[in-house]
Amino acid sequence: MKKIPSHILKAGIRITLLLAIAVYFALLVVGVWGIQKCPVQEYIPLFLIATGGVGLFSKFITFMRDHIALHIDVKYIETTFYSVETVFFILGSYWVYKEYQPKYDPSYGNHYCNKTVYMFAFVYLTALYAIAVAIVSGFACFLVCILFLKTVESGEENVDAEAQTNTEEAENRPAQEVA
């Protein structure tokens, strides 16, 4: 199998990090913009701000890992930030899905949320859940295929062994019995 050069792998990782940075920056901007625009659940803009800020910082550390690693141990910092992201993901899921479908009209007073703020958080969380389901489903399909191939392989070995046994028995029988 042909080995992929490391500079191509690093370029792909950097592009993925840059896309994540763009998403986290958008979360931060929408959260700051909507800080007073979601009274039905004031934590939704804070979720966007916290997720965007922590995500930007963690991806920046990952992006600059080679330079930072010369001075400090980066893996503990990354682990801490990814743990905080996970906590905010769980809290954000609760806050956003609990208020599904809020009123988008400010005339409802404290029972509304700006549509951009709410839908941005909702789509972000839903997309992450969809990606997680796709990964788990793909892994499950992979495992089923492996088990199926293993079963087929062991079945072929049994058929081959049985055929060999029958051939040996036929060779060992006297010529009169065969006719």
Automatic annotation (TrEMBL):
InterPro entries named among the record's database cross-references: TMEM272 (IPR040350)
Ranges annotated as biased composition (Basic and acidic residues): 170-179
Keyword match Transmembrane helix: yes
Q: Does the keyword Acyltransferase apply?
A: no
- Which residue ranges are recorded for the region named Disordered? 159-179
Transmembrane segment boundaries: 12-34, 46-64, 76-97, 117-149
What keywords appear on the UniProt entry? Membrane, Transmembrane, Transmembrane helix
What superkingdom does the record give? Answer: Eukaryota
Xref: PANTHER family: MARVEL DOMAIN-CONTAINING PROTEIN, SI:DKEY-19B23.12-RELATED
Q: What is this protein called?
A: MARVEL domain-containing protein
